[in-house]
């Protein structure tokens, strides 16, 4: 019998943009309420603590979102390229650089899942440093995989040339939530004022079993152009 396939455990953060929107709402609420307590010294200090906390949570969430998107893309790209079995030294070096961080990042995601407090994570300076280091390395690897973006995406759909590598990677890693596609579609098709998305019939009921290698699922859109 063939050896059983090893399944790697992985967690991802979802609804990060909703978290950022809620943070902005809370900051606006704080600013509006602060004026009613401006004459109370101890309240001023309390408000400043809240501002710092929300700013930290906002920064941490944005870093997390950007890092995770690049991680999803790199896992997908390296799996598609079958780098582990490739004889090209150049690709193997990319694979090794990614593998060194991959396990560490997945362990962080798992720990965060077990204790889902972004506010708590935001207070730990070392977490911010880790995110920035991971993001820097992932960005370097994406630059080295520029040929993959061109061959797999831009050569098949020329309008992707209007997107930067960062925007294209974010689009590829957006998952199944059509709301994330809207700003990119507007860059690709000027004059779009409404978009309706629906999944292909064969994917209905199977989306929960999508692997990380299927980061770029096909989504059909109906575009209404002025």
Automatic annotation (TrEMBL):
It holds the Pfam family DHC_N2. GO terms for biological process: microtubule-based movement. GO terms for molecular function: dynein intermediate chain binding; dynein light intermediate chain binding. Residues 10-204 form the Dynein heavy chain linker domain. Transmembrane segments: none annotated. It comes from the Eukaryota. InterPro entries: DHC, Dynein_2_N, Dynein_heavy_linker, Dynein_linker_3. One of its GO terms (cellular component) is dynein complex. This is Dynein heavy chain linker domain-containing protein. It comes from Rotaria magnacalcarata.
């Amino acid at each position: 019998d063939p050896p059983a396939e090893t399944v790697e455990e992985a967690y991802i953060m979802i609804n990060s943009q909703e978290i950022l929107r809620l943070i902005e709402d809370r900051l606006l609420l704080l600013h509006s309420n602060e004026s009613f307590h401006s004459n109370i010294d101890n309240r001023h200090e309390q408000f400043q603590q809240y501002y710092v906390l929300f700013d930290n949570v906002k920064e941490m969430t944005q870093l997390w979102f950007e890092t995770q998107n690049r991680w999803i893309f790199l896992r997908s790209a390296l799996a598609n390229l079958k780098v582990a079995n490739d004889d090209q030294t150049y690709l193997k070096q990319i694979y090794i650089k990614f593998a060194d961080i991959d396990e560490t990042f997945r362990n962080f995601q798992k720990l965060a899942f077990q204790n889902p407090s972004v506010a708590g994570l935001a207070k730990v300076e070392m977490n911010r440093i880790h995110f920035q280091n991971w993001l820097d390395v992932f960005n370097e690897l994406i630059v080295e995989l520029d040929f993959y973006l061109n061959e797999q995406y831009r050569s098949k759909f020329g309008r992707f040339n209007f997107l930067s590598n960062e925007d294209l990677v974010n689009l590829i890693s957006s998952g199944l939530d059509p709301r994330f596609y809207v700003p990119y579609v507007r860059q690709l098709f000027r004059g779009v004022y409404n978009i309706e998305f629906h999944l292909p019939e064969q994917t209905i009921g199977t989306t929960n079993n999508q692997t990380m290698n299927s980061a770029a699922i096909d989504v059909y859109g109906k575009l209404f152009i002025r």
